[in-house]
Amino acid sequence: MTTVRIAGAGLAGLVCGYELARRGARVVLYERSETLGAASVARFAGGMLAPWCEAATAEPEVVTLGRGAADWWARVTEVTRRGTLVLAPPRDRAELTRFARRTEAHDTLDAAAIAALEPDLAGRFTSGLHFAQEAHLDPARALTDLARGIEAMGGEIRLGQPAPAQVEIDCTGPAAALPDLRPVRGEMAVLHCPEVAISRTIRLLHPRIPLYLVPRGQGRYMIGATMVESSSDRPATLRALTELFSAAFTLHPGFAEAAVERSGAGLRPAFPDNLPRLIRQAGTWHLNGLYRHGFLLAPAMARRLADTLLPETRHEDHPQRRTA
To answer: What is the pLDDT of residue 315?
Structure first.
């Protein structure tokens, strides 16, 4: 049995570990943090599996790599498949038109169709786009389920333990010493607002800050911005949060009464083209540069890496192998 050591038990490390374990490898993940996910930028992610929406601003490869993400994740954790609803205030309808031109696999909706999908948004928007094939998941639950799956297949996750000097795979994100890797800031907040009932991911093409809102269940919503370019690692700023809250209010005035349960900011690793890379350096494979597409692109990148490390498994189906 092939043993694969992985530095970093964040999103990239766990996805690699899971994919390799399901192909028969014995994986050992090393994580400096004492708690799973405590140092992972994935805890600030929306968990959106939305490749067709990403085509509006991302490279075509993001769509290609991300199309199978929802099916991959469905083997690991709960995936909500209710699509993505893209909206814009009436004054910004031109933004919606541009978004539609840059993307595919969507239906154009009028006010009645929007109300049928999301009754709480009735009368608030006159047109929108519905990407019915898209999905979302809960990042915290997904990380936990990945870890459980790895351990069920005989793998180890060694929390509070730095990786040895030589490993087969490095998934340490911004901490990795890779050329051209830069940190890009992401900011988010979790709102508790049982007065508003929304069941699917919403993207609001707001004039100042493009907002996304992801339901977390029981009246909780994660809100974030799709574009924040900064390398600062300080907590979420007042300006960013004010813009997020303003955009949420534009979506539905009921969010004015929401309780802000938490907010945060994290630094996401990115290369100049904002695409992930597999890099072999000094005998170690690096999976890095997932940027803001982590949950969407990590499965395809992990498959590529597994194909390289375990070529004999490349075209086979690999059911989970559980141990007693």
So the answer is: 60
Using alpha carbons, select from 58, 83, 93, 6 the residue that is nearest to residue 297: 58
Distances (CA, A) of 167 to 206, 228, 284: 44, 33, 6
pTM, 2 dp? 0.92
Enter the tokens of residue 114: 């929007």
Question: Running DSSP on this structure, what letter comes out for residue 41?
Answer: G
Q: pLDDT digits over 129-160, tens only?
A: 999 999 999 999 999 999 999 999 999 999 99
**8 Å CB contact between 12 and 70:** no
Put the strands of the sheet holding 220-225 in their side by side order: 107-110, 127-131, 84-87, 201-204, 211-217, 220-225, 182-192, 259-270
3-54+137-175+273-313 falls under which CATH superfamily?
Answer: FAD/NAD(P)-binding domain (3.50.50.60)
Q: Any residues with CB less than 8 A from the CB of 114 and at least 6 apart, and which? A: 85, 87, 121, 122, 124, 125, 127, 128
- 268 within 8 A of 262, measured Cβ to Cβ: no
